[in-house]
Amino acid sequence: MDHARAAISSLFGGEPMSYTRFSIARQTDGDNSHVEMKLSADDEEGGEIGRQEHLHSSMGQPRRTGKNLCFLVIAAVLLLLIGFLIGYLSYRGRMQMAAKCLDGSGRCEMTPTTSYLADDDETEGDMPEPSILYWPQLKDLLSNKLSVKRLEGDLRRRASRKSFEAGLSEDENMAIYIHEQFNSFALDKVWYDEHYIKLQVKGSVNNKVSVVEDSGEVLVESPSAYVAYSKNDEVSGKPVYVNYGQKDDFKKIEKLNVSLNKSIVIVRAGRITLAEKVANAKEAGAVGVLMFLDPSDYKGTDELVPFGHAHLGTGDPFTPGFPSFNHTQFPPVESSGLPHIAVQTISSQAASLLFSKMDGDSCRTDWTGGVMGCKITLSSTSKMTVQLKVNNVMVDRKILNVFGAIKGFEEPDRYVVIGAQRDSWGPGAAKAGVGTAILLELARVISDMVKNDGYKPRRSIIFASWSAGEYGTVGATEWLEGYSATLHAKAFTYINLDAAVLGWKHVKISASPMLYALLERTMMGVMDPAKAQSADAGSLLSRVGTDWVKAVVPLGLGHAAFPFLAYSGIPAVSFGFYNKDEEYPFLDTTQDTVENLKMITNLYGLIRTAAEVAGQIALRLTHDRELYLDFGRYSEELLAFQEEFLQYDQEVKKLGLTLDWLFFARGDFQRAVDGLRRDITNSDEGNSVIRRALNDRIMKVEYDFLSPYLSPKDAPLRHIFFGKGSHTLQSLLEHLQLLKTSNSSVNVNMLKEQMALVTWTIKGAANALVGDIWDTDNEF
């Protein structure tokens, strides 16, 4: 062909020529594929398909004579015919190959490409590469390889164990077993991470709750369960019932003119974490907290006493912001989230006994719950007090995090992390057993797909088994702290498997907004009644339709995925099956056994469905050229806050301030999102350097919402959407609300600082999304 083109070029005086050919290419701004014509100068045997280039000839113009002109014309016609035949045969071959790929007949010699948030079942691209698996094939492989029998076997390993408390023998033995399993699956790398942490555990004597009256002291309960990080103390005070212990509940008590100073607050479990209840009680002036499982929320738990922790934070509270490696020199600091008041859990029977001895007003109707004789507090003449004695002890323990990695073939230094808590105070079948079983099964299946089925993930997958999760995601947080300088630039998603099955009627999700679209699409596909592998998954979607999408719960301290998002700025997702009208009653108790968990309808079918959802998310994020992260979703979240802030625009102006700069920063972020979408649309999908740079810009979005103006030591949860502290958008909104409800409580200087820090955090995120420094500016 080169000789033919050279001859033709000579014949027509060396003028630059281009030629056309057909190729199948994805429309980057739509969901449909079609055949389009592309200009190119590449020959049929080489060059990069789809690029526009022109072949320029520099040959001199030959002399033309009448004698050979006729010969040259004949030769040119012959060469044109030959070129046309060769081009046609080549085109026909490529179209046959494309048809083979599109008909789902197996592997094909083409590499799929992606457009932003492409449909799952679309077959993509036409770039020649070694044989690979297309997305529909990949989904089928995963689904066919998942084994209910293996999931059941790994869950049942917990059946005969009463406890897997962090750092003790059962927890360590399970870590060794998981390490051995990872090695047997032939993962590319398997290793331990050791951390040396401080834990608070039960003392040699059980904690006690008593009632002191004129007649003397009466023991109410002395349970074997305890609350980690409670203050070790003996305190007494009048009892006050505050429903779920939420801020609104405390405000309602204040309106009743009931003093909470030096009181013992009684709350029921649920709605918010125990640590948040304790923090609210401490702020109100209480000296102690008692929490029970209300029978109206947790059926069949009259005698059960749950375990828990009272640290308002994550990780080892005695090394905040620092990793607990053995060689670390720790500063003499402790977490500000430690409660410094006494805390204990009790049974609902004990709560009923306390209520029976209280002679004050009866509870509000919506506070009554399932405990008989509910009372708010004591009468003004009563001299009864509740006495709480906590005897917990501090211990130093070594914990093991276990990791296994499947390395990516193109970008091994970019990875998705799949993790599950391994430890539990009791048997922990639902809390830790289900997640651990899913983790092992996904590691086995995906490794088998790589080793035996030809799957070549572009990016790496890390499987992680965490210890000390019961104490506030300690194992995972210490790992994040240990590698904080690099993880945010390499780990682009965390998938949490904890408590994935707590019921069977509904689905609950918690995730970074960047993962909503992927999670929704994945769950709808896996639970499609027409495609569902398990009958339970299909009937679930038939019952609830698409309403499950609305069961979105913000990630908070109670989620194991929370530190990944709020501390490290890594998009995280947590999901699970549950019953909307009733809680799984045995979580965090000694009755969280496999036998009790089996009361859930089609338990193992649901576990398998949860494994398929998590597996598909991981595979999708490592399969496509473009990271399947919806970076534009935060524009909607910012717009929602802007609408809330607008209500206080006039009040802010009266202080000599303005919200305009904050709104301009949001607009800049939206323009940066639009610009990145244009860059993705206009980029060469086959250029790995450009694609990596675009993916890195996508990865930066979550991290750039961590406030850069705070120290991780002092404020580790720096995310302005999901973090804790005055730097968050929610805190700013609450401060603005005071302008209308309690103007005298507004701290103008603090408000000005909050507005400035939030504005420049958003503006910095916009600049980072733009990309290169020469494309950014500080003009609003």
Task: Outline the low-pLDDT stretches.
Answer: 1-65, 93-116, 122-131
Under the CATH scheme, the architecture of the largest domain is 3-Layer(aba) Sandwich
CATH homologous superfamily designation of the largest domain = Zn peptidases
Number of domains: 4
- Mean pLDDT score, rounded? 85
Subcellular location: Cell membrane; Melanosome
Domain Peptidase M28: 401-597
Keywords: Cell membrane, Disulfide bond, Endocytosis, Glycoprotein, Lipoprotein, Membrane, Palmitate, Phosphoprotein, Receptor, Signal-anchor, Transmembrane, Transmembrane helix
Subunit structure: Homodimer; disulfide-linked.
Give your account of this protein's structure:
The protein has 780 residues and is an alpha/beta fold. It has four domains: 2-103, no CATH class; 138-199 and 395-623, Zn peptidases (Aminopeptidase, 3-Layer(aba) Sandwich), CATH 3.40.630; 208-391, 3-Layer(bba) Sandwich (Glucose Oxidase, domain 1), CATH 3.50.30.30; 633-775, Transcription Elongation Factor S-II, Chain A. It is 38% helix and 16% strand. It has 22 helices and 19 strands. α6 links the parallel β8 and β9. Residues 1-65, 93-116 and 122-131 have low confidence and may be disordered.
Provide the fold topology:
Blueprint: H1 2-11, E1 19-26, E2 33-40, H2 66-102, H3 135-145, H4 148-156, H5 169-184, E3 189-201, E4 208-213, E5 216-221, E6 227-228, E7 234-237, E8 239-241, H6 247-255, E9 264-268, H7 274-283, E10 288-292, E11 308-309, E12 342-345, H8 348-357, E13 385-389, E14 393-406, E15 411-421, H9 429-452, E16 459-466, H10 474-482, H11 484-490, E17 491-496, E18 506-511, H12 516-526, H13 535-544, H14 562-566, E19 572-578, H15 594-597, H16 603-623, H17 633-645, H18 649-654, H19 660-682, H20 688-703, H21 729-741, H22 748-770
Parallel strand pairs: 6-11, 8-9, 9-10, 10-12, 15-16, 15-17, 17-19
Antiparallel strand pairs: 1-2, 3-14, 4-5, 4-13, 7-13, 14-16, 18-19
Helix pairs in contact: 1-2, 3-16, 4-9, 9-16, 12-16, 17-19, 19-22, 20-22, 21-22
Subunit structure: Homodimer; disulfide-linked.
Transmembrane segments: 69-91
Keywords: Cell membrane, Disulfide bond, Endocytosis, Glycoprotein, Lipoprotein, Membrane, Palmitate, Phosphoprotein, Receptor, Signal-anchor, Transmembrane, Transmembrane helix
